[in-house]
Write a structure and sequence with these properties.
Length: about 200
């Protein structure tokens, strides 16, 4: 390996260490406690070193937003590929989305603005748009197969996503009796009920 490649690998390793440290601090203390100083202390580098990789804390959080959407998109693509029937695909993607949220709650929280980072619609990560498109394609396939005519497929996806995201948020806040297991059953039944309700709608 040449000097240039070695330096680039080292830069990537330090960059990833910064992101991992930010996540670990968030797990232990919450996103409000994440600072560049704490990150520097955690990885045993000086604070100015952090600024060689990221302009500020928000830039670190935004990198994690992208990382999160990349991960959830891959999980949902994998889940969809394991099924042929559109309804099964939608349920599998819901389960994958849910599993990601509770496997990486600190990442999920920062993806949806709970860490203090926000972005406009124009700045939405491509992976986030691709996740929406993945769900939309599966829903359109389901509509075609079941001969369901919805005026606004995007509104239907918003309803599905809103139900799942809302239950995730409430569950993370400890507001769903029975905890994560019961909430997961509720969300799967909600998706099924929405699909069957659209089927029955004249």
């Amino acid at each position: 390996m040449g000097i240039k490649q070695r330096r680039e690998r080292e830069r990537q390793e330090i960059r990833q260490s910064i992101l991992s440290a930010a996540r670990q601090i968030a797990i232990e203390e919450g996103w409000q406690a994440v600072t560049t100083r704490k990150i520097a202390d955690r990885i045993e580098y000086s604070q100015p070193t952090i600024y060689e990789y990221f302009d500020n804390k928000e830039a670190i959080l935004m990198a994690l937003v992208y990382q999160g959407f990349e991960s959830v998109l891959l999980a949902m693509q994998t889940a969809k590929a394991q099924h042929e029937q559109p309804e099964d695909q939608l349920l599998a993607m819901t389960r994958a989305y849910w599993a990601f949220a509770f496997r990486c709650p600190e990442l999920y929280q920062v993806m949806y603005g709970f860490g203090g980072v926000s972005f406009t619609h124009a700045e939405t990560p491509a992976e986030a748009r691709a996740t929406f498109a993945l769900l939309r394609d599966a829903l359109l396939c389901w509509m075609q197969r079941e001969q369901v005519d919805l005026e606004e497929p995007n509104a239907a996806i918003d309803a599905l996503w809103g139900a799942v995201h809302g239950l995730i948020t409430l569950t993370m806040a400890g507001r769903i009796a029975g905890g994560e297991q019961r909430a997961r059953r509720i969300v799967e039944q909600t998706v099924i009920d929405l699909l069957h309700g659209w089927q029955a709608d004249p």
